[in-house]
UniProtKB/TrEMBL annotation:
Domain of life: Eukaryota
GO biological process, one term: late endosome to vacuole transport via multivesicular body sorting pathway
Keyword annotations from UniProtKB, A to Z: Coiled coil
Protein name (record): Snf7 family
Coiled coil as UniProt keyword: yes
Keyword Acetylation (UniProt): no
Family indicated by similarity: Belongs to the SNF7 family.
A GO term from the CC aspect: multivesicular body
Coiled-coil annotated residue ranges, if any: 27-118
Organism: Emericellopsis atlantica
Amino acid sequence: MNRLFGAKQTGPKPTLNGAISNIDTRVASIDTKLKALNGELSAYQEKLAKMREGPGKQAIKQKALKVLQKRKAYEAEKDKLESQVWNMEQAQSMQDNLKNVMTQVDAMKTTNKELRKQYGKIDIDKIERLQDDMADLMDVGNDIQESLSRGYDIPDDVDETELDAELEALGLEQELEQEMGGAVPGFLQDEVVPEFVDEPPQAEDKVKQVAG
């Protein structure tokens, strides 16, 4: 059976890139042949331009025609190979795009699975309860701050008349103290005269004058 159909190939499978490379090599070889044929045609054309009509010129002309036929055949083959390369390059581009799409799809599937796994561990109800607890704690904190900032034993309403009278009394006390030379009035302190003092303090007369 192997003699009829050949042995089973065990080498690497052909790829588009490999096929394109092979065809590019063939195209390059054809370009080399075309360059040589163009050189021959140029040489024949120069000879024909210098020769007169006759058997010799006809012989050169026949050779030039054969070279021209070869060039046309190679050019046709080159066109076919370039068309094949173009088609395979398009197929390769589609294959690469498909690979990129599949890679993106696989990445999205993996990301979706991970997101479901992570978000599945989150309890929305617990988060809502936590938010409510935080709001309650903020309210309690505000109440505590308001309570601590409250004054003690300070009347809300103070009579301005009483304040004016008290302020006036303080002013009289300061004037009296200045007249007495800075001493404290007798009616504001308990007078205690030491036993070793023979005469009463001179400031007493001034106090009497002020009182009178």
